[in-house]
Design goal:
Keywords: Hydrolase. GO terms for molecular function: hydrolase activity. This is Alpha/beta hydrolase. It comes from Streptomyces cavourensis. The chain is an alpha/beta fold. The protein has twelve helices and eight strands. An eight-stranded mixed sheet has the order 1-2-4-3-5-6-7-8, with helices on both faces. Strand 1 and strand 2 form a beta hairpin.
Length: about 280
């Protein structure tokens, strides 16, 4: 777990992004997008499994994980959608399969619907995609981010750790929780970045694309943790009904962090979807 690293960098309009590619050259490309407040690390087990058959691209969004974080940085959904379109062009991927979790789902949807990013297929895992969204805690922090930024480091670390742990139904091993919270806890910039990404979260960025979902023409699979307390599975049924031909796979014994709670079940679901695209 300590040797997880993204070895490559790319300069984008929102800062330097760290990324990597796993698997065999020439394999069908699959791009994995993480959510908030996470990083590509959530995909570690799923990515390793997919890389046996596919060429897997991983990246940390600007302001997340090991990518650049700085004051005044634009880490909004609008910015991340543009950055993802830039990355696909940099990678010279014209129609990859895309797998996106949480906030990453909204990023992938915006890149496709607004920035004309073309995909072979799109798998959405517990995505932030439908209004209304944002828990009471999320809205409280978003309205008072400057106050929260001034929390003593120990209190901040405890808050972040508990928040991240609440996304898991199975429970996170201490070393996994450490890895997920480290980007937000290691220094003052990490603490500021945590509240910055919440402060810039705005439902209008999904409102702009939600009405376009019935016009999506590519194959879409929706996967959802049956025990998701962040975004209930009822939203999965609603989203699936809005996208023509979309399928829904409800993953048992998994919360919002499906890639970590049930990596084997999620990988099996994703592999079945990817094979249908061949």
């Amino acid at each position: 777990m300590t040797d997880w690293q993204l070895r490559k960098t790319f300069s984008t309009t929102s800062g330097t992004v760290r990324w990597d590619r796993w698997g065999q050259d020439g394999g069908e490309p699959v791009v994995l997008l993480h959510g908030t407040p996470f990083s590509s690390f959530v995909w570690r087990e799923v990515a390793q499994a997919l890389a046996r058959q596919y060429q897997v691209f991983l990246w940390d969004m600007p302001g997340y994980g090991t990518s650049e974080k700085h004051a005044g940085q634009d880490v909004s959904l609008d910015a991340q959608g543009r950055v993802f379109a830039e990355l696909l062009e940099r990678w010279e991927l014209t129609e990859p399969a895309v797998v996106a979790h949480d906030f990453g789902g909204a990023v992938a949807l915006r890149a496709h619907l607004l920035h004309k990013a073309a995909y072979r297929g799109l798998a959405l895992v517990d995505p932030v995609a439908l209004a209304p969204w944002g828990s009471p805690f999320f809205r409280l922090v978003g309205s008072n981010s400057e106050v929260f930024e001034q929390l003593p480091p120990a209190l901040h670390r405890a808050l972040v750790r508990e928040y991240v742990r609440s996304a898991s139904f199975a429970g996170l091993r201490p070393e996994v929780a450490d890895r997920l919270t480290a980007p937000w806890s290691d220094d003052e910039e990490g603490q500021a970045a945590f509240y910055r990404q919440i402060a810039q979260a705005d439902q209008r960025y999904t409102d702009e694309v939600q009405e376009l979902y019935p016009g999506i023409e590519l194959p879409v699979a929706v996967c959802w943790g049956a025990e998701d307390t962040w975004i209930p599975v009822s939203r999965g049924h609603e989203l699936t009904s809005l996208i023509p031909g979309a399928t829904l796979d409800v993953i048992p014994d998994a919360g919002h962090l499906v890639p970590l709670d049930a990596p084997a079940a999620l990988t099996a679901s994703l592999l079945a979807f990817l094979r249908r695209l061949s």
